[in-house]
Design goal:
The protein has eight helices and eight strands. By secondary structure, it is α/β, with parallel strands linked by helices. It has a single domain, classed as Aldolase class I (TIM Barrel, Alpha-Beta Barrel). An eight-stranded parallel β-sheet has the order 1-8-7-6-5-4-3-2. Helix 3 runs parallel beside helix 4. The termini are close together.
Length: about 220
Amino acid sequence: MIKISPSILSADILKLEEEVRCLDLNGAEYIHIDIMDGHYVPNITFGPNIVKSLRKVTSKILDVHLMIKPVKQYIKEFIDSGSDIITFHPEADDNPEEIIKMISDSEIKAGIAIHPEVNIADIDHLFSKVQQIIVMTVTPGFGGQKFMHDQVQKIKDLDEIRKNNNYNYEIAVDGGVNNENAKICKDNGADVLAVGSYLLSQNQKNYNEIINSLR
C-alpha cells in the first residue's frame, strides 16, 4: 500500500504540533519536513530545531528533505535531531557518496532527490547506496505549485531500474500531488506520496478521508 507523507511546509506554523498530532492520528505514515536555506532554493523554512521538536510529538517516520547547499556541514545536526530519513539533492554538494555514507553509518535511511532539471543517468551511480529517491514534480522551493506531468517518466524509469538491479529504494513523489495524479504516480511505481497544500489546506476533520482517497 502506498504511504502518505504530509508536508508540513503547508501547515499553519502556529498550529504545527496540533497539525502533526492530527496527521498522526488520521493515518499518515510519514511526516515530510522540507528544509530550505535560501541558497539551494530562494526560500527559507525550517532547521534541525523543528525536527527535534516534532520528534517529541510523533512516533511516525520523520522524512527530512534537505534543499540546502552545501549539505555536508549540516548533516550531523539533522541526524542528531531525530530524523528517520534524510534526503538531499546530490548536485548541491561536492561528494554525495560521502554524505550518503555519513547518514547510513548513523543507522538512518539515506535518500537523494531529483530536481526536474536533473537527468537520472547523471546520478544512477548513487542508486544502489540509498533507501529513498524523491522525484520532484515541481521546481523545489515553494509549496502550492502544479504537478509536472513530464516528470512521471522518471518514476517509471526508477521503478524499472530498481526491478532490473534488485535495488531496495522506495520511490517518493514530491510536488503538486492530489487525488487526480496520485493514481498516476502509484501506477508508475511510486511508493510514497509527499502531499502538501492539497491535504493541509483542508479542514482537519477531512484528513482521514483525503489520505484514504490518495491511497
